[in-house]
Amino acid sequence: ELLPLIEAVIRVYCANVAPPKRLKTLIAALGEEAFRQILAEELASASQIAFNDAYPKNLLPVNEVQNDLKMIIPVFAGELPASTLSKLVTLAEDAGLAYLLVTTDQDLALLPNSRHEREQLLGALAVSFKDLDLPASVLRVCPGSHECRMGLCATRDLARSLQKRFGAGLYKKTVAISGCPNSCAQPQLAEIGIIASKSMKNDDGSRSPRFDLYRRFDDAGLGDRVAEKLTKEALLDLLAAEF
Questions:
Q1: What is the pTM of this model?
Q2: pLDDT tens column, 36-72
Q3: For the residues of the chain, what is the DSSP string, one character each?
Q4: Average pLDDT, the chain
């Protein structure tokens, strides 16, 4: 209901106000009641706009069959070498697939058309990517200070530290790491969320990040902050009980 109203306001503005003047100029000139009347007439005369999906449904895993066939290719910490991507593109093309999908968890996905095609792809992946692991859970990481000017920590380095210390145990839960309080990796929606909340000066004059730890104990709502201003070492020690 809100969208037709916004469209009507825009049409009334375009018809009665010359940019760069604002909409409030028109309201001040006409008065609120007169403006409401013009807006009501515009809404009454406007035709409904039919909206169509901008993305073809056949490219989305929208049914149980496609979900059952879907293959997730994990991308650690959202970073993929160009050479690996090139190999995956070649593999998909050889299998007759026209595209790769990027998931919301920073992984890649293939949608084979049949069970037989899926088995062939699994075999090809096993040959081409001998070290390919297929974890069932999520490690979601924002670019952090590697690429973002807002980043307070090197998020991928932290992710590798987690992997080195906890190994396969890291994938027992969903984990998200954000390099600043903007929380682009949505750490409050993961079972374990890590946010680099500030940068603090050390005794030697250098700076290092401090981390807040969030835990989400059920599927409803956001995670709770259970610890704050942790050094990297203190964070890893605290997480040892989780993995």
A1: 0.64
A2: 999 999 888 877 666 565 555 555 544 454 567 888 8
A3: -HHHHHHHHHHHHHHH--TTS-HHHHHHHH-HHHHHHHHHHHHHHPPPPPP--SS-GGGS--SHHHHHH-EEE--GGG---HHHHHHHHHHHHHTT----EE-TTS-EEE--SSHHHHHHHHHHHHHH-TT----SS-EEE--GGGT-TT-SS-HHHHHHHHHHHHGGGGGGS-EEEESSTT-TT-GGGSSEEEEEEEEEE-TTS-EEEEEEEEE--SSSSPPEEEEEEE-HHHHHHHHTTT-
A4: 84
